[in-house]
Design goal:
The chain is an alpha+beta fold. It is about 50% helix and about 20% strand. Strands 6, 7, 8, 9, 10 and 11 form a six-stranded antiparallel sheet that branches. A four-stranded antiparallel sheet has the order 1-2-4-3.
């Protein structure tokens, strides 16, 4: 097929493709379509496969031309997009070419048509000037260790009922019935039975201080934010924290014999977790600055696909369907469109970051050796207190192994980039706060 093509770049990483098919190929494609139908169709007065072409043209002329036009367009596009020389101009998998206008099949003329579609964005990451990556400063000392031990105590606490007649105290777990009142009558829709919270922690109704001192079965009226409510204390439970000793360490894991064993393990894990999080924050800072200094547009179809995939993932997390999730969101007073709009900025940044990383890995021809993968296995084993064989078993699946290889490539890339940009000390960050930051 004689095909002339002209690619015209458009905004937001889209392309307009104008294709011209020679008249001879147009006629041939039309005749092929005609012959195909002639073999299959059966009309009164003719045997199947023996209907004359001129009869078919009189009866189905316009339909035949429409079929032939579709075949010509599909065939020519397939030929163009299979050409390796034009691979960077192929449409994205989720961006089908859209026909502009209404081309007409004229057997006396060449056929010209135009389609528009999205392509993978081109990015040239060349500008590294002025980049200064801030490295958060994290200290892990006795205070941080004690906080982790406290969290372990909380997870291993036992819960018992406080004796009847004893007042609820800070730290107790209470169950209350709550209802708002207006002129002594209950306000419809405000009742909540069996609300559980811990006195001293944040609670939905800010009644923690009011409940402290109450006894099981007591009711009282409280005023909050100009509203009057009745609170009834239904149950009071005491949280009994285990002692920080060797027994607790052994309860946490059979690999610990003493409390010191547990502490040493916590220190190693906290250091590893902090290092990973700091590196993640540094990488995010670097990518943010690279995006700003090397701007490029994303095709709308790519962004839409990412956001909709995020919506579907959220539905799975809620163990529901995307349609049902939309109803749940609407019931909370927000629409799906509003939520997707809120996600746009984060999704755009994530996609651009991924594209920049992939481009730099390709451009710098970064690869991974078997020895580097072995070293990664050992690193993971050391950080997780596992054996190398256990780690290898985890990565037996080809897809998991591929993710690991990609991760090592990225680490090698960042190691190179940090030699080319400035890295300075950032703000001091508490260990616990390190994991609260976005």
């Amino acid at each position: 097929m004689q095909v002339k093509k002209e690619f015209t770049p458009q905004e937001k990483s889209s392309v307009k493709l104008t294709v011209t098919i020679g008249k001879d190929d147009v006629v041939k494609s039309y005749k092929d379509a005609l012959a195909k139908i002639a073999k299959e169709i059966q009309l009164p007065g003719f045997r199947k496969g023996h209907v004359p072409a001129n009869v078919l043209e009189r009866k189905y002329g316009e339909a035949l031309k429409a079929d032939a036009l579709g075949e010509i367009i599909d065939s020519s596009l397939n030929e163009i997009f299979q050409d390796e020389a034009e691979k960077d101009k192929r449409p994205l998998p989720y961006a089908q070419p859209v026909l502009e206008g209404a081309p007409v099949l004229d057997l006396e003329k060449d056929l010209t048509y135009t389609v528009k579609y999205d392509v993978f964005p081109k990015v040239s990451v060349k500008n590294f000037g002025g980049i200064n990556v801030k490295e958060p400063q994290v200290t892990i000392g006795d205070k941080e260790l004690q906080n982790e031990l406290k969290a372990i105590q909380e997870r291993n606490a036992t819960i018992t009922d406080r004796a009847d007649g004893e007042a609820a105290q800070k730290g107790d777990i209470v169950t209350v019935d709550y209802v708002e009142l207006e002129n002594g009558a209950e306000v419809a829709g405000s009742k909540r039975d069996g609300y559980v919270f811990t006195i001293g922690d944040d609670d939905a109704y800010k009644i923690s201080d009011d409940v402290a001192g109450m006894k099981k079965g007591d009711s009282k009226e409280v005023k909050k934010d100009g509203k009057t409510a009745r609170v009834t204390l239904k149950a009071v439970k005491i949280k009994n924290l285990p002692a920080l000793d060797d027994d607790l360490a052994q309860d946490v894991s059979e690999k610990f014999k003493t409390l010191d064993d547990l502490k040493k393990d916590l220190e190693i894990n906290m250091k590893s977790a902090a290092d990973r999080r700091v590196r993640e924050m540094k990488n995010n800072d670097l990518l943010t600055q690279l995006i700003e200094k090397n701007p490029f547009d994303l095709p709308q179809s790519m962004l839409d696909t990412e956001i909709n995939a995020r919506w579907d993932m959220m539905a799975k997390q809620f163990q529901t369907t995307p349609e049902q999730l939309e109803k749940l969101i609407a019931a909370s007073g927000q629409s799906k469109e509003e939520m997707l709009k809120q996600w746009t900025g984060d999704s755009e940044k994530m996609l651009k970051s991924r594209i920049i990383v992939d481009e730099l890995i390709r451009e710098r021809n970064i690869s991974v050796t078997p020895e580097e993968i072995e070293a990664k296995y050992k690193e993971i084993a050391d950080q997780s207190n596992s054996t190398v064989d256990e780690v290898k078993k985890h990565y037996e699946d080809p897809r998991s192994k591929e993710y690991l290889i990609d991760d090592v490539k990225e680490q090698k890339l960042y190691d190179l980039l940090y030699k080319e940009v400035k890295v300075s000390k950032g703000d001091k960050v508490e260990f616990a706060d390190l994991f609260k930051q976005n």
